[in-house]
Specification:
heterodimer, A: 638 residues, Cytochrome-c3 Hydrogenase, chain B, 37% helix, globular, B: 370 residues, alpha/beta, Rossmann fold, Cytochrome-c3 Hydrogenase, Chain A, domain 2
Chain lengths: 638, 370
């Protein structure tokens, strides 16, 4: 039995450590722990500040999934104050969210995840002519033939398309060769390139993927042009409570948004569609197909087959509130709810709804701290976010010292992340969770699908056909988690187009309003108010909870996706999603746990968020306290 | 593409003598702020090292600066990463993880001792021995100090590294500080911004790679070519400020017409950054162009300078023209005084921002706010 530590886990956001106990003869992971090793205290910092500024602070939880915390934050403040934003503001926010999801998923696949399968060293062995023909074969074999609604069809031809030319691949290969010969490997240095899994794919696929890594590294910036047009910059575009600051006018030469600016967004949206249809999806499906059908690599499912959860997003139109249930009435993506037992099959799975007042019900979502560096006044009882206590109790490692850890203590406390639970169960969130919830709801006839939901179901069925496996088999795995993120990037590229079309039509109808300023001034606010803001961030379901008192933020909590996925175990609720997935993964070489990097990366971790330092009464505690929920950057959904 | 020449190869190919080359190296040693005893190392580096080695450490941050870095249009991220620098250690982009990754850092430090560029993203938490940011089981502050003493120069990427950042806002629960508060004796380049403009970030590295020297800095350590002017000085809406044409609230006629956002809280008059001239996405926009007042994200302590969407208070100064409402009437002079008033107002604002600890009674807090 060997204890293996991977710290830092790279190609993620933030600071994550994992420890495994591996049976070296069988490769079986006996136990695994995941620890968030940093917290920043941003929720504490928010206290006493203007709630209209909270979006700017919370957006800095995470810069990878930028925009998502700002969106959840303005939604929470608007929910608390009863502000209904104008139609255009809703469309613009949806465009920014969909642009983010498209770009973030693409960057995750190529730049944070692909190097778990693809090696520049293997690419050196490839035949450039063969690579060109494989590229062609992949493009035709892995076209799903699906698309979303396009009203204003402005894209004449694909604006980015994979080059299937031997001389191009030769040029890329020559560059990689020079890099390797120079001894300065840069970002490719010191990795386990000799791991046998890097020989699962033919060298030509490696070379093709390396070429796409570089192509997409240079094009990804253009996919978030909507943030720069509507929010002035990226990462961290600007928002306002009540709508969006980017006024629209076709009568003013200097207006933030006019036809020319919409043209910039349109070009970016079209490029996004090309990038997912011709790069992201075919590459991912080719790699997944080889892994699943040829090498039978289907593990790492973890909680996906047991319990997944979503909140729902992309309001078709403006709504009066979230806690009052209005938000959930007109969503394009209705993945709100929990699915248990999906591994038993789509019809056997159990669905439970999660809407409106459920988000403020103290019994439904609680958090435990059995293995987190905190203490509660009443031991063993979980607390709802609104009643959250965050009293730190750093206990140090099992072996080593406070400032030089050897091993963390899996029997005691070992993470700054708390353990959030839904009705006492840990759950997985993210693209895979969204796909499972929607798939189950549609197949069980619980809802008539919107175009986006229908596209998701069609995608899943198409992939199942190619792989020759049931959805509940291939989806509940590392490959399934990664595949669903890729499938979702395609849906998001069309959601982006869909809301841009709606924005253009609405402006064309004469409505240029972008902000509702009626309740912008604190003098118009009630003495006390509280609200919830929801968002399906790239990495999963995100919630912000705010309490406002006398015009200032009295308390603020964010429950982020990576808190759900990266949390430590709980003796009653079970393992967290990372841990459960690692335990179901077989490791070929204990000292080179490449499979563990794969499974962790399949969640797209985001560990940057931190915690707050106040108890329910708002009294500051003496030491460092962490908001159970905010330990990780959830915004990004990570 | 051609393999990049070393500095010596470049000199010799143009017929420049070895003697001149050595002279240049000695000048470089001084320019880079290195002790003259490091002269030999500089010669060695310029002779043998084809690409400048960069080590990128992450402390208390959100990775927004990495994201900004790869959003650069000129140079493009791929050209930068493969041809202009050798990024040997980066939490975000490196393939390697865990022990081999940490060992690689050790060997890079040894191999390029005194020659590599250290880029740091994130603040440095000091409270409780720095345990709120642990990497490889060790506090970030210890790692930073250890690596920095072997670096040729340090870049503080983003407002967290340069000033402490969002986690250092009051009450600064983790005791976070800027890199320069814990690293001494090395040339430090401050590149603030939350995040900085992509081409500003890559521009600094490009300058180092192309010229082999640190770009000229201002008194605070920021490259003058990127932080030499206030946004207000280069803002395309400046004419509206001078003319007294202001947006009074979001989505009003002034907002739609693209008038000055000063009354909506714009920090452009006190913020040094390239948003006005370079803009984001190579000239596409910046917050003000998109209708949003600047929040001053490249300024020291801007997080404690809120509320962001409220105009900074009028300050009574000996000059009666400083009331910003009258600025338009007396264009240029008033504009200049207005700027000064901003700076004063902002420093006063910082001083009077209610600290979270100890909690004040509500009356007092209200008074402070208004």
């Amino acid at each position: 039995m060997k204890r293996v530590v991977v710290d830092p886990v790279t190609r993620i956001e933030g600071h994550l450590r994992v420890e495994l106990t591996v049976d070296e003869t069988t490769g079986k992971v006996q136990d695994a722990l995941s620890s968030g090793t940093a917290w920043r205290g941003i929720e504490t910092i928010l206290k006493g500040r203007d709630p209209r500024d909270a979006w700017a602070f919370t957006q800095r939880f995470c810069g990878v999934c930028t925009t998502v915390h700002a969106l959840a934050s303005v939604r929470a403040v608007e929910d608390a104050l009863g502000i209904q934003i104008p139609k255009n503001a809703n469309y613009i926010r949806n465009i920014m969210a969909a642009s983010q999801a498209t770009q973030d998923h693409l960057v995750h696949f190529y730049h944070l995840h692909a190097l778990d399968w693809v090696s520049p060293v293997e690419a050196l062995k490839a035949d450039p002519v063969g690579t060109a023909s494989i590229q062609n074969a992949i493009l035709s074999k892995y076209d799903l033939g699906l698309s979303g609604p396009v009203e204003f069809d402005t894209g004449a031809y694909p604006k980015e398309f994979p080059r299937a030319t031997p001389s191009f691949f030769k040029a890329v290969q020559d560059k990689v060769k020079k890099l390797v010969e120079s001894g300065q490997l840069g970002i490719f240095a010191a990795h386990w390139w000799d791991h046998p899994d890097y020989r699962l794919l033919p060298p030509e696929v490696h070379l093709m993927a390396v070429a796409h890594y570089l192509t997409m590294l240079d094009r990804q910036r253009e996919l978030v042009a909507s943030h720069v047009v509507f929010g002035g910059k990226n990462p961290h575009p600007q928002y306002i409570v009540g709508g969006m600051p980017c006024a629209i006018s076709m009568n003013d030469m200097n207006a933030p948004v006019n036809t020319a600016r919409l043209g910039v967004v349109d070009a970016s949206v079209n490029l996004g569609i090309s990038a997912v249809n011709y790069f992201d999806l075919p590459d991912l499906r080719a790699i997944g197909d080889i892994d699943v059908t040829q090498h039978k690599v289907v593990d790492g499912g973890g909680l996906a087959g047991k319990c997944v959860r979503g909140y729902g997003d992309f309001p078709e139109d403006t709504y009066s509130g979230i806690a009052n249930g209005d938000y959930h009435k007109r969503l394009l993506l209705r993945c709100q709810g929990v699915v248990e037992n999906f591994a038993a099959g789509v019809m056997a799975a159990k669905f439970t709804n999660l809407e409106g007042k459920d988000y403020v019900d103290p019994e439904i979502i609680t958090e435990n701290i059995e293995h987190s560096w905190y203490t509660y006044p009443q031991a063993g009882k979980g607390l709802h976010p609104f009643a959250g206590v965050t009293d730190p109790q750093f206990t140090g490692p099992k072996e080593g010292t406070k400032t030089n850890w050897k091993y963390l203590d899996e029997k005691g406390k070992y993470s700054w992340i708390k353990t959030p639970v839904w009705r006492g169960r840990t759950a997985e969130v993210g693209p895979l969770a969204r796909y499972i919830v929607v798939y189950v709801k549609v197949k069980q006839g619980l809802m008539q699908p919107t175009w986006a939901e229908k596209m998701m179901v069609d995608q899943v069925d198409a992939v199942s056909k190619v792989l020759g496996a049931h959805a509940h088999v291939w989806m509940v795995s590392t490959v399934g988690r990664t595949a669903c993120r890729g499938l979702e990037s395609q849906v998001m590229a069309y959601v982006n187009k869909y809301f841009l079309d709606k924005l253009i039509k609405n402006i064309g109808a004469g409505d240029t309003a972008t902000a509702n300023m009626e309740k912008f001034e604190p003098a118009t606010w009630p003495k006390e108010a509280r609200g919830v803001g929801l968002h399906e961030a790239p990495r999963g379901a995100l919630g912000h909870w705010i309490q406002i008192k006398d015009g200032l933020t009295a308390n603020y909590q964010a429950v982020v996706p990576t808190t759900w996925n990266g949390c430590p175990r709980d003796s009653r609720a079970g393992y967290g999603a990372y841990e459960a997935s690692m335990i179901e993964t077989r490791v070929k070489e204990a000292d080179k746990p490449l499979e563990i990097l794969k499974v962790i990366h399949s969640f797209d971790p985001c560990i940057a968020c931190a915690t707050h330092l106040f108890d329910t009464e708002g009294n500051e505690k003496s030491v460092a306290h962490s908001d159970p929920f905010l330990n990780v950057c959830g915004g990004c959904g990570k | 593409m051609e393999k990049r020449m070393t500095m010596w190869e470049s000199f010799s190919s143009r017929g420049i003598s070895r003697r001149t080359f050595l002279k240049t190296c000695s000048a470089l040693t001084v320019l880079m702020g290195l002790p003259f005893t490091d002269y030999k190392k500089v010669v060695e580096a310029a002779t043998k090292q084809p690409l400048p080695v960069v080590v990128w450490l992450h402390g208390h941050e959100c990775t927004g600066c990495d994201e900004a870095f790869i959003r650069s249009q000129s140079p493009l991220a791929s050209d930068l990463l493969l041809n202009l620098i050798s990024l040997e250690y980066s939490d975000t982009l490196s393939a390697s993880s865990g022990e081999p990754f940490e060992k690689h850092l050790e060997s890079v430090i040894k191999q390029y001792d005194g020659k590599f560029i250290l880029a740091v993203e994130g603040g440095v938490p000091l409270a409780d021995q720095g345990i709120s940011c642990m990497i490889g089981g060790k506090p970030f502050v210890d790692i930073l100090k250890g690596v920095a003493q072997h670096a040729a120069a340090v870049i503080e990427y983003g407002s967290c590294a340069a000033w402490g950042g969002v986690q250092a806002a009051k009450p600064n629960p983790t005791g976070s500080v800027s890199v320069s508060k814990v690293v001494a004796g090395k040339p430090i380049i401050k590149v603030p911004g939350c995040p900085p403009i992509p081409e500003v970030m890559t521009g600094v590295v490009m300058h180092l790679a192309l010229f082999g020297q640190i770009p000229p800095l201002d008194s605070q350590g920021r490259p003058k070519q990127f932080f030499g002017n206030r946004i207000h000085d280069t803002c395309y809406r400046r004419a509206f400020f001078d003319a007294g044409m202001f947006a009074e609230r979001f989505d009003d006629a002034g907002s739609r017409a693209g008038w000055c956002l000063y009354k909506l809280g714009c920090r452009g008059p006190e913020t040094y950054n390239s948003c006005g001239n370079m803009r984001w996405w190579n000239g596409l926009s910046y917050p003000i162009q998109s209708g949003s007042p600047c929040i001053g994200c490249s300024s020291d302590g801007f997080w404690d300078n809120g509320p962001f969407m409220e105009r900074l208070p009028n300050i009574v100064t000996p000059n009666s023209l400083t009331n910003a409402d009258k600025v338009g009437a007396v264009a240029t002079i008033a504009a200049m005084v207005g700027v000064t008033a901003h700076a004063v107002a902002s420093s006063l604002q910082k001083a009077k921002y209610p600290p979270v600890e100890p909690p004040k009674d509500e009356e007092q807090e209200k008074e402070d706010k208004h």
